[in-house]
Task: inverse folding
């Protein structure tokens, strides 16, 4: 009995030792696998961070190139958007060895594209600088020509102004007053409002050999003592200005001195101070006042 018991005990102990060894070996294997996995995750995270930094640098290069605004701007912007999309994708996805390998390959293709575009962009900038020099030289010539032209235009404008001033007709000897018209047709000056039949306006247009010939019109405005415009009381517009006139005096001018005499008929002229104004267009060229008692 003692011998059999010892044998059974030994077998049991042997089985336990084997199980213990198997358990220890399994734990060692598990710890090794976990350590390997942690190492791989750490390495993947580091590679992901490095790839993100590379992509951000790539994006910054595109940003700087786009600020120069060349003819490649549209193509540069399209490639920049691809970099931005990949950058967001890398940040969003879990880092694994297989996914990082694909991302790196795409990054390398983008980097090659960037290098090609940068080379082309530099060539374009060099060509543009050459064109700028040509344009600057041309602009210098054009500026000199414009200055010369502006000087000539200024001289011509000044001369034109002098001609306009010299050719302008001048009015002199404006005379105004009230008259009674007798049955014989004779006109007798009066200062009495109740006796007046007409108001006479006379003036002289001076001789001017360089003025335009032909019909010349003047607007005559007569205002009575109650500030009423007499006569036709029509209004003419000159841009934003308007003028209410009593009548228009039109003369056939032929560069010689002309004496103008116009009558403004009325009934029951008011007492008071009368004002007479003669306008050439909207420009006042003569004025006079008189009083009726």
Result:
């Amino acid at each position: 009995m003692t011998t059999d018991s010892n044998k059974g005990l030994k077998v049991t102990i042997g089985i336990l030792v084997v199980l213990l060894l198997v358990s220890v070996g399994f734990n060692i294997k598990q710890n090794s696998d976990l350590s390997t996995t942690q190492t791989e995750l750490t390495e993947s995270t580091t590679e992901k961070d490095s790839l993100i930094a590379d992509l951000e640098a790539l994006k910054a290069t595109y940003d700087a190139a786009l600020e120069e605004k060349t003819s490649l701007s549209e193509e540069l912007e399209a490639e920049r958007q691809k970099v931005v999309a990949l950058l967001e994708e890398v940040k969003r996805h879990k880092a694994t060895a297989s996914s990082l390998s694909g991302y790196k390959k795409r990054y390398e293709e983008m980097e090659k594209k960037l290098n090609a575009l940068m080379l082309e962009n530099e060539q374009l900038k060099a060509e543009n600088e050459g064109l700028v020099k040509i344009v600057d030289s041309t602009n210098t010539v054009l500026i000199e020509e414009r200055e010369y032209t502006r000087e000539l235009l200024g001289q011509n404008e000044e001369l034109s102004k002098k001609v306009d001033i010299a050719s302008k007709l001048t009015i002199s000897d404006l005379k105004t007053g009230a008259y009674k018209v007798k049955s014989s047709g004779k006109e007798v000056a009066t200062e009495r409002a109740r006796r007046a039949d007409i108001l006479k306006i006379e003036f002289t247009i001076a001789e001017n050999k360089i003025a335009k010939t032909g019909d010349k019109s003047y607007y005559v405005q007569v205002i009575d003592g109650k500030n009423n415009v007499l006569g036709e009381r029509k209004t003419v517009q000159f841009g934003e200005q308007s003028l209410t006139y009593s009548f228009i005096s039109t003369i056939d001018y032929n560069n010689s001195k002309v004496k103008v005499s116009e009558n403004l008929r009325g009934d029951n002229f008011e007492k008071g101070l009368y004002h007479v104004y003669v306008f050439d267009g909207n420009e006042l060229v003569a004025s006079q006042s008189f009083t009726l008692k």
Notes: The first strand starts at residue 171 and ends at 181. Residues 32-41 have pLDDT under 50 and may be disordered. The chain has two domains: 2-123, 171-292.
